[in-house]
Amino acid sequence: MTMVIGVAHALTLVLLVVAAVMALARMAMGPSSLDRSIATDLLTAVTVAGTGLYVVISGSTTALPVLVVLSLIGFTGPVAIARLISFRSAQVRDLRRSTAGAGAASQTRGSLERAADAAQACATVGPEAEQTWDDAEDGEDLDADTEGRR
């Protein structure tokens, strides 16, 4: 029975080494930061499994705190990287929108100014409201007209 367990331990160690080599290769070749992040997470999991295998083979519990710390790092690392990637993606998306909409920004600005003038004209109450609305459509300055009514 002990020989079967020894073979299982050796096979597990070989598989962990193969997984670690594959993760390191992916970290080196990964075309994107997401590939590298996943490879780092896999390498952390392999390290946790290797530490667990050491605890099982040696029968010593001195490595258990290391196992707990590695598990916490294995959880918080990918979460932090995912947040960083999502933040950068939002920045890139905003940058693309601002550069794509640069030509339309001048048209939009004129529309927004007209809408603000119309909203200010709608806020005017009393008998002169209709006159103020006409002034807003003509592009006249409403501040002088509405200053006394505020």
From TrEMBL:
GO molecular function terms listed in the Swiss-Prot or TrEMBL record: sodium:proton antiporter activity
Region (Disordered): 117-150
Family membership: Belongs to the CPA3 antiporters (TC 2.A.63) subunit F family.
Gene Ontology CC terms, in alphabetical order: plasma membrane
Transmembrane residue ranges: 6-25, 37-57, 63-86
Claim: Transmembrane helix is one of the keywords in the record: yes
Domain of life: Bacteria
Organism: Actinomyces urogenitalis DORA_12
Key words, A-Z: Cell membrane, Membrane, Transmembrane, Transmembrane helix, Transport
UniProt-listed InterPro entries: MrpF/PhaF-like
Main location group: membrane
Ranges of Acidic residues composition bias in the record: 131-150
Subcellular location, record wording: Cell membrane
Membrane topology: Multi-pass membrane protein
Protein name: Multisubunit Na+/H+ antiporter, MnhF subunit
PANTHER family on file: NA(+)/H(+) ANTIPORTER SUBUNIT F1, NA(+)_H(+) ANTIPORTER SUBUNIT F
Pfam families: MrpF_PhaF
